[in-house]
Amino acid sequence: MPNLAQTQELFWRLIRAPEGVEAAVAGLGARAELPVGLEAWIQGDERLDAVARLDVYANMYFFRLLECLTEDFPALHAMIGHESFHRLAADYLAAHPSRSPSLRVLGRALADFLDHHALADAWPFAADLARFEWALLEAFDAADAPTLRAERLRELAPDEWPDLRLELTPSLRIVEARAAVHELWMAAAERRALPTLAPGPTVLRVWREELRVFHRVIGGVELAALRCVQRGESFAAACEAASALVGASSAAIEVATLLQRWLADELVIGYGISPR
Question: Could you tell me if 155 and 256 are in contact, meaning their C-beta atoms sit under 8 angstroms apart?
Answer without folding.
Answer: no
